[in-house]
Each structure stands twice: as C-alpha cells, then as structure tokens.
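Q: What would this chain look like folded?
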Amino acid sequence: MFGGDASGELKRCLAMLPGMFGRKVRGPVERDVHDRVLGDGPIPDAMALVLQEWLSRALIPIVSTFGDSLTGGGGLFALEPGGVEVIDRISSTGLATNGSMVWRAFRTLGCGGVWLSELVGCDRLGLARYLRLDGITDVHDLAIDEGGDVLVVSTGDNRTVRVGADGTVTPVLVGDGTGDAWHLNCVTSTDEGWFATAFGQRAQHRAWARSDRKGEGVLLDMASGERVIGGLVHPHDPRRIGDGWLIAESGADMISRVGDDGSKRTLPLAGWTRGLVIEGNLALVGVSASREGTAEPVGSAVVLVDLDRWQEVGRVEVACEEIYALILVSPELLEGLRRGAGTNGLRLMEAAALDRLPEGAPGRWPGAAPLPEDDRRIEVDVEVPPTFVAGETVVLECRLRNTTRVPIASLEPNPISLGFVWGGIDETEQGRAMLPWLIWPGEKIELNLVVTAPNAPGNHSLTVAAVQEHIAWLGGGFEGIVEVVAAE
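A: My prediction, written as structure tokens:
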C-alpha cells in the first residue's frame, strides 16, 4: 500500500519499472550460477560447504549494501554455494524478515533539508508494499514485530518508530538532544523485550563523533531507556546469544561477545564490522573498509565466523562500497526479491516488446511473431495421471523451458501459451494457460494447467504442449493415451 500522496508515489514507483530492482525482471525461473550476475570473488570451500548445508534447510543469506560515491555502489546480493548473485544495484540499509515478508530500506539522502525515506516489502511473489515515510531521517535499521509492524530507526533525528500496516508512525524510543545526538542505529528483540545500540548519549548533533568519545557506545533497553552495556566502540547489530550479547564494534574493526557477568571477548576482523546474522554456532559478519585507520584497507566482504572456536573460517568479497545488513531467507523469498516489481506479467511483456522497437518507430510494440519452422520446440515436463474421471477437472503442475532462440510471451497476434487437447489437435476439447511474463531463451517457469476430462469414458489421446495460436502446436510436450473412467 502507499502512504501519503498515493497518486504521486504510484507514479514514482511505476517510473522505476521494469528496472526496479536492477536487472531485467524475471519470474520464478531456474538459473545456473553462470547465468547470474556475479559479485566479486569465488566462495571459499569452507563457506561453500556451510552455504550448501544452509541451502538444504532453505536458508540463503541476503546482503544489503550501499554506496554514497561513484567509486563504490550498493545493492542487494545473495550468497549461494556457487557464487555471489547481484539481485539489484539499489543502495539499501536496513533489512528485516519474518519469514513471509522481507522489508528493505532504500538509502536516501536529505535534499534541501527534506527527507523522503522509502520502505519496500517483498513476499514470495515480489513487491507487495511501498511506504514513503516523510520526515523519517537517515533510516538505518529495520525490524519486524510479532504483529507485522516495522520498527524503523530514524537515526537523523534520534528516534526509533513503529510503522503500522496503514503507514501510521508511532514513536518508540526518542533520545534526548538535537539531531543525530546519539546515533541510534540498530534494534533487536529478545524474550525480555526490545533493545537498541547507539554511539553515545550526547545532547548535540553528532557530538559523539569526536575521536575522544568513540568508546561511549551503549546497548539500551528500549522500554525503560536504561543502559544495558556501556563502553562500546561505535556498536551495531546487537544479538542475544547464550548468557550475553554478540555485538559488532564497528569503530574497533571487531565483533565482541559481552557476557551478562561483564566478561568480554573480542575478535578483530580487519574492517568496519556491520551486518550480522547468526545460525547455530556460526555467524556471518559484514566487513567494509575501516573508517578508523586501525586496519589495512580492505574491500567489502562477508566473513564466516565459528562462534565456538571464536575464529574466522573464511570470507568472500562483495562488489559494493559498504555492507549494512544481513538476513537469512527462504528460496521462495529470494525469488520474490529477484522479481521485485515484476509482478504484472502483461506490463513486463509489453515493456520488453517496447524495448525491441527500432529507433524512430511509431509508439506501438510488435506482437509475438510466428516462430520459424526449425525453432518450434518448447520443453514441457508434466506428470499426467494414467486415469481420469469423466468430466473431472484436474490441475497439472507443469514445468516449461523456453528452448527456442527468442523470448516468448502470450502477446498478440500469435501468442504462445501452454495448452491441452483431447483426441488430437483437430478436436475442440482443449484449454490454455497463458504465460505470466516474458520467458527468455533457456529459462524455466512453473505453470499450472487446468485440464477437464471428456465426458465419454474410454481410452483417449491427450496432448499437453506449448502452442502458438494460429500457427502450430509446438514440439517438446506430452503425448499419450490415458484412460477415462465413468464417474461413480
């Protein structure tokens, strides 16, 4: 849904399509890693084994990054055993998921003193929500509460707020002082409540930034405002772990494990540590170039840490300026992030067709041209039951792969679709399932085809295949004899 001026925000959002979020937007397709846009560096063997094990449990790390200069850049990345996938190139900060939705904060900069912060929410189908939050300044972290509301850290004006489903903003923790006096940055929840990290608790804007004050960082109880831990060096990403906390002390280029008894153990990681996700006894930590001069300059990377052995296991470089957040998502949510705003198949097909218009052509797009006779084959993988009940309707789960040399779509005048026909292609007992978006050569999609059996019992031939209307049924599908039995 849209907050504020819905018509204006809708126009702005649509203006970003279909490029939002980055590459050509595609549907839930199967890709080889070589077909993906890759970030820097191969995945080290030790990390690849861990990522493969996580993938077997439907866990895929997502990295939110940003860049404020032309020398770096940001975007959204996925870490998989075969490589680092660039999902898009839109700079982002906070990232949060509750298993059914991923919320993301786009990196924004105040223009003329006016802040228009943006949040987008994606589910497994793609973009589901867009919120423009006027007056929320320099959004850092996001978190999702039990009711589905989003907690947003408005660092520029020293507060955290709760954003409801209707876009209503409610203050949660408001620090004293003016502007960015505390540098509130990250929030997390435990069984005891909500907690936040801050660089300090000064009264003036960015007073914490003085070099002699960088050890004033705190972990705060958001309900009471009380200090839980002090003496931290520019802390981010508090995570409750055992009888204590795991915290990224960014200003000291390390992560720290702080016990409830006051004990502290540190692990230097040679860069600005920010972005942290824990799975079992392992943690992924984002590391960007050091801001403090305490380590040799490094490119941005994600580091795998064994928390039991308290040591780095491996790291992979990520092609960005700075890493902000890390989360784990399911393969289904990853597909939603890949699709982004590509949720309207017709719009995508029209936009793709329009892209093929020659320069100076009239303002209309060509339809689907007839496939050449030597290119009329589209693979369709489907399990057809051996027996149907007369008049029964069955949903067949089909997997279609575009094995032609060109993109295919359900566009006039010769749309390509998935179809069935009983008794041969000259019979009238047939149906169609339109392609939901433009399918590129080599890509696969899953598509349901609703098939109704003939009313007459007996053995019937059935064809399930792709068809180009007014041209031909295409090879590569299912053809066979099935039994149709009388209804009881």
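Residues 235 and 249 are 4 Å apart (CA to CA).
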